Amino acid sequence: MIRVTVAIPTYKRSTLLERALLSALAQTFAGGMEVLVLENPSEESLPGVPTFAERLCDSMADTRLRYVRNATNLGMVGNWNRCLDLARSQWVIILHDDDWLSPHFLELALALTDANPELRLVGCKGIIEREGVEVRPDPRPTSSVKYLRIAPFHILLGNPFLAPGVMMDKETALALGGFDPDWFPTMDHMFWLRFCEAVPCARLQFPLLHYYIGNNASLQSDILVRYILNDWKQRAQLLSRHYPKNRLLRLYSRIKVYREHVFLEHLFKQSLSYDELAEGLTKLGWRPVSIYLRWTYFPLRCVLETISIFFKSCTMKPVKLLK
User: Which of 41, 57, 231, 272 is deepest in the core (most CB within 10 A)?
Assistant: First the structure.
């Protein structure tokens, strides 16, 4: 029986796809699993002619590996949603074709769901890798790994998962409607919020995912601006649903925009126009914060992080490795 699917949507990734595939096939989880490679055809693809991705999958000759090429290019979000449709298991992980998993990810994530059957989504901490920089080795988990129950409050503080390498229950994901293309490029972040509002979710407190920053869409300045605009919209909706009268959280949300601006510039080494960003945010109902108040971001963050520890949904328990 197939318990989990590692789905790798791919498009023109001839140099990086192999690493993602090998990381999925090298998992220490000994149960039934499949690795689904779902390719969006490029302009150069010809009917009946194998692509690099198809030849790569054939060369690996692993019975757990399944390759599918879409008849047409469904776009990024469309391909992610088709991964959910085609998965043959209860649990599905959508892995970027330029990211990769640490060997113990599946073992620990499934051990956590076995010990806590109510969980419907499990993510983890991550490691940021950069193009041209030596890749860091996978840290070995200790005999037990703690986890954090994720509530909407945690998502107010920021995305609890570094990238889409998150194990989710397929039935729940489909019931929630899958990833929403209207929220590009933060459709995964929005999806995790909807999960947390609907069902129990958790994060393993250990880095088990490598997030690769190289030649991808995230390096485009207009995409990074949309990240910040979408995060503001998401926080505004979250506050309206859960904390409609909390002025402190609304102030924090307004100040967080400045922090995100600096953080993304540093992370992706891109210069973002503040004027362009402020114009877009203002149209969404954001109001600037006096420079004399912006310094309060870090004290507020510390206070809110402390408050989050006391959430009922925030219990910590160990998960043990089998070996």
Answer: 57
C-alpha separations of 108 from 19, 28, 235 in Å: 21, 9, 30
Of the candidates 279, 215, 208, the one whose C-alpha atom is nearest the C-alpha of residue 11 is 215
> What backbone torsions phi and psi does residue 41 show, to the nearest 5 degrees?
-70, 140
Is the Cβ–Cβ distance between 14 and 41 less than 8 Å?
no
* Domain 4-217 superfamily per CATH: Spore Coat Polysaccharide Biosynthesis Protein SpsA; Chain A (3.90.550.10)
Domain ranges of the chain: 4-217, 220-289
Provide the pLDDT for residue 99. Answer: 96
**For residue 160, which of 122, 106, 217 has the smallest C-alpha distance?**
122
> Which residues sit opposite 4 in a β-bridge?
33, 91
The alpha carbon of 187 is separated from its chain's Cα centroid by a whole number of angstroms, namely: 9
Helix 221-242 / helix 274-283 crossing angle, nearest 10 deg: 30
DSSP label of 219: G
Rounded to whole angstroms, the Cα distance separating 55 from 41 reads 14
Whole-number pLDDT of residue 272: 92
**Residue whose C-alpha is closest to residue 194's, from 214, 169, 219:** 169
pTM for this entry? 0.93
